[in-house]
Amino acid sequence: MLWATLPLSFFLLFAAAPCFSEDIQDQVHIVYLGEHNKKTRTIQAIEENHLSLLLSVKKSEDAARESLLYSYKNSINGFAAILSDEEAAKISEIEGVISAFPSKERVMHTTRSWEFITMEEGLSDADRESMPSRANYGRDVIVGMLDSGIWPESKSFDDKGMGPIPKKWKGVCEEGYAFNASSCNKKLIGARYYIKGYEAYYGPLNTTYSYRSPRDSDGHGTHTASTVGGRAVPGVSAIGGFAHGTASGGAPLARLAIYKVCWPIPGPNPNLENTCFDADMLAAFDDAIKDGVDVISMSIGASGTPRKYSSDSMAIGALHAAKEDIVVACSGGNSGPELGTVVNLAPWTITVGASSIDRAFPSSVALGTGKKIEGQTVTPYRLKKGKMYPLVYAGNVEVPNLPRNISGQCLPNSLAPEKVAGKVVVCFRGAGFRVGKGLEVKRAGGAAIVLGNALANGNEIAVDAHVLPGVGVSYGDAIAIMSYINSTPEPTIAIGPAATDFNVRAAPVMAAFSSRGPNRVEPDILKPDITAPGLNILAAWSGSSAPTKVDGDPRRVKYNLISGTSMSCPHVGATAALLKSLYPNWSSAAIRSAMITTATRINMEGDPITTAAGEAAGPMDYGAGHIRSSLASDPGLVYDANYTDYLLFACSSIKVQMDPTFPCPANPPPPSDLNYPSVSVTGLRAAAVKVIRTVTNVGQRKARYKVEVEEPSGVKVGITPKVLRFRKVGEKKKFVIKLTAVGKGSTAGGHVGGSYTWSDGIHAVTSPIVVTLT
Ligand SMILES: *[C@@H]1O[C@H](CO)[C@@H](O)[C@H](O)[C@H]1NC(C)=O
Ligand SMILES: *[C@@H]1O[C@H](CO)[C@@H](O)[C@H](O)[C@H]1NC(C)=O
Ligand SMILES: *[C@@H]1O[C@H](CO)[C@@H](O)[C@H](O)[C@H]1NC(C)=O
Ligand SMILES: *[C@@H]1O[C@H](CO)[C@@H](O)[C@H](O)[C@H]1NC(C)=O
Ligand SMILES: *[C@@H]1O[C@H](CO)[C@@H](O)[C@H](O)[C@H]1NC(C)=O
């Protein structure tokens, strides 16, 4: 939400001083021009063209030059410059300009829960066996990470035994503060940083809390990079010894290229949240494409109303990447479980939701009545064994005159030390940071925290590395503890130590925070595409950031447990790297299709995957379902698509010609006809809708596939032909899916989900179907 509110307050703050107002309205805009005309353009000619466009709205050449932040010259044709809205509007009218839009802030998709788990434990046994080894652990595949940088000294980035850097690599190791050429190696083969967009908005970086270099002061970038390509490091655990085991990235021999685009938001606790500006991200995309990355993993997204693809820096950068068949994996956001919250919506990317894995950190809680409750925690601190402690509800031990709406939340300075000393305090989730609530109980002299879920959190317990003993409990259990407190004059409690518990069923469960469909830019493309582990993921951490990231927590850790679609996205990025290693000639669409059509909607108990609230999950929650890397390495059939298909899609979906060399035809195919591995149709009425798809055989030379349909309720699905025969690898077959509304299957505006599957007896190639009825 920050970008929605900050520019507003910025503006209001200065509105009283009219002499400033003109300057204040100026902000960084991106002017997008599509493709470079490679035949006639030199680097100088490109920059001159950008400057001449600027000169058409600026008063002088000096003013034009001064306003230019970035001239994108590699793959992307466009620039970032300081322009007023009027100037941007004027430029957007000029022939050849596709769009001009403000460079906004984006956020990293981590939740503020901090725990620890290994990558492989997020995958099923079948996944672990052979797929990474068959794929040479992603050796020589280059993954570009757009994030907060890297902590190069982490053991996860050791290059011992790795071969020479692939010849196609054209990137650099950019030096900067506390980062020099020796910070890169054969694992971290490149690192750059982009800060002009950030500094144009926030002013010069405060170097007392961040590094003007690719070095990561936050932890997020180190975590996501090690999840993709960290080496196997044995004997790793979280603070307190939880989740002990070997930490390894999904593609441990892949090469990592770091593009630091996220920087701390100035304020009292600057590293709590980072911000990533469009202008900087687009510069990173432009370099990464030229540098020769094979995969881009990007755990960043905008909040607020999503922009259409032609004014969305991420969609633009990813389109240029897709042209070079670079796979772009991105997080879908942490704004669930409400519908329509998913971000990163372009069909030329793979958008990832987050789900749980089969691990928990149970801690037994005993009330004075003898009643036992199971909570979860990863705090390294313990209460005295078997001792009963006095128990209080925070709302009853607060300082006088605390506003009612924050009572019980344990916000900073809310508790009265004389009423808290030596006691266990029940606090609720809602406002403020979970770990901050523990800090407050500790400040007030409390013995431990019981952190109760709010109704919205349900049973999804956030395990935290609290700064004191403590435990998280479900909403139901929190209410039970509250009624116990209210039933007796001297309530007491004991909290047992936590353990790491494997094989927790049911798993996976969709995380409540994972953002949901439908796609608000183009509802006929289903987003998210897939889900992957994103709850309590253990990976490497920055040496300059506390595991909780809270100011006042002096602890430093090498590995940290955190949650978010930020953590699930690199699992998909890693799988893409393995697939790229197995099939260097596959298109990015084929790699995306392989992951989507082999995903599962069934959990490890054999039941349908549920939401955190316990209801059956569907395509709006997880797209095609949970990723299965091993099956993705042998998908049988793929839904291929290329750059031209995406341009045609943009012609019909957003009615924009995204490439100056590709005029939109008069009647481009409808968006739902993009050869996507899922089917989404909105506004199905009495008249049938036909959707066309083409599959490419990538399995056996000779194959015969039969289709089976699971119809969405109230929708008849006819597929013709019902059988596809292939005689060679690479052969393509077209089929038509006819959808007809029958009766009242669901309320108008509601969506219904189903699927269809092509099977040859070996492969099952499944695509979700989502229909919105009107
Ligand atoms: C580069 O960094 C390493 C480790 O931080 C340090 O030992 C070395 O002296 C630095 N070299 C230069 C040229 O700054
Ligand atoms: C930089 O951050 C530190 C720590 O938050 C603060 O004390 C200092 O005033 C800041 N410096 C500037 C120039 O804003
Ligand atoms: C509590 O109410 C105050 C005043 O109405 C408001 O400013 C604040 O945001 C509220 N806090 C929360 C956590 O809802
Ligand atoms: C992959 O593409 C390259 C270049 O187009 C070609 O030389 C090579 O034979 C292809 N490999 C396979 C396995 O198709
Ligand atoms: C892209 O795919 C379409 C089929 O969808 C095909 O007609 C076209 O030739 C392809 N274009 C390129 C550049 O490969």
TrEMBL record:
Annotated Peptidase S8/S53 domain residues: 138-607
InterPro entries in alphabetical order: PA_domain (IPR003137), Peptidase_S8/S53_dom (IPR000209), Peptidase_S8/S53_dom_sf (IPR036852), Peptidase_S8_subtilisin-rel (IPR015500), Peptidases_S8_3 (IPR034197), S8pro/Inhibitor_I9 (IPR010259), S8pro/Inhibitor_I9_sf (IPR037045), SBT (IPR045051)
Residue ranges annotated for the Subtilisin-like protease fibronectin type-III domain, each copy included: 673-771
Superkingdom: Eukaryota
Molecular function GO labels: serine-type endopeptidase activity
Inhibitor I9 domain span: 28-107
Keyword match Nucleotide-binding: no
Occurrences of domain PA (ranges): 389-480
The entry's keywords: Hydrolase, Protease, Serine protease, Signal
Record Gene3D superfamilies: 2.60.40.2310, 3.50.30.30, Peptidase S8 propeptide/proteinase inhibitor I9 (3.30.70.80), Peptidase S8/S53 domain (3.40.50.200)
Catalytic residues (positions): D147 (charge relay system), H220 (charge relay system), S566 (charge relay system)
Gene Ontology terms describing biological process: proteolysis
Leader peptide range in chain numbering: 1-21
Keyword Hydrolase on entry: yes
Family membership noted in the UniProt record: Belongs to the peptidase S8 family.
Name recorded for this polypeptide: Subtilisin-like protease SBT5.6 isoform X1
